[in-house]
Amino acid sequence: MTDLRTIKTHNAIANALIELLDEKPFEKIQAQEIIEKALINRTTFYRYYSGKSDLAGKLIKEVKAEYQALLKQRFGSDNLVRFIQMIGNRLLEKRRLILALWKIKTPRHHLYDDMHTLLKNAFIAHAKRIKSGDKNWDYQAHIFATIALESHRYHFEKGEILKIPQVFDEWGEMIEILKG
Predict the structure, then answer these.
(1) CA-based torsion, 96, 87, 154, 109: positive or negative
(2) Are 141 and 123 in contact (CB under 8 A)?
(3) Distance from C-alpha of 139 to C-alpha of 143, rounded to nearest angstrom
(4) pLDDT, tens digit, for every residue of 92-133?
(5) Can you give the pLDDT at residue 85?
(6) What digits encode the pLDDT tens for the residues 67-86?
(7) DSSP string spanning the chain?
């Protein structure tokens, strides 16, 4: 079990990175700025992280692992609406962190793209299980992943809970308008 001081230190460091990402791009952030904003000393920071990229990588790895576990749970679930509502609520708890990490786009760090790929692959696997035939699900999976993540982003930025039945209704209305 991790002691309370260590948890507080990790939270302070993560919050410092989040605040700095609200101010400027990841590439312009220095480890020293994270250290100063977190109100810790250099030794403490470097005890846990080799630098800002290591910090970002570990935060992204945690979010990605939880997201992947949630997706595996979903596609074993019977109730899509209830599951998507649950995943939205779980992600909302970490919305500041997720929105901040989505801003980082480097060759090593690209959480949004990783989540998109995970969601797309989960959709394809699910579609193949419930529909027979050799259909290529790539297009539908890509569009679903994009719309789902952008729906999350929209609601996260507003600090709102994603109300899935309403979101599905709005997606349907959008299609009806386009058919129009």
Answers:
(1) positive
(2) yes
(3) 6
(4) 889 999 999 999 999 999 999 999 999 999 889 888 888 888
(5) 77
(6) 998 888 766 556 767 777 77
(7) ---HHHHHHHHHHHHHHHHHHHHS-GGG--HHHHHHHHT--HHHHHHH-SSHHHHHHHHHHHHHHHHHHHHHHHTT-S-HHHHHHHHHHHHHHTHHHHHHHHT--SSS--HHHHHHHHHHHHHHHHHHHHS-S----HHHHHHHHHHHHHHHHHHHHHT----HHHHHHHHHHHHHHHH-
Q: Compute the distance between CA of residue 123 and CA of residue 144 in angstroms, rounded to an integer.
A: 8
The one-letter amino acid code at 86 reads M
Lookup: tokens for 66: 């939880």
Residues ≥6 apart with Cβ < 8 Å to 8: none
Closest by CA position to 58, among listed 40, 41, 39, 45:
45
Provide the residue count of the chain.
Answer: 180
The three-point CA angle 114-115-121 to 5° equals: 90
Distance from C-alpha of 145 to C-alpha of 139, rounded to nearest angstrom: 10
Radius of gyration of the chain (CA): 19
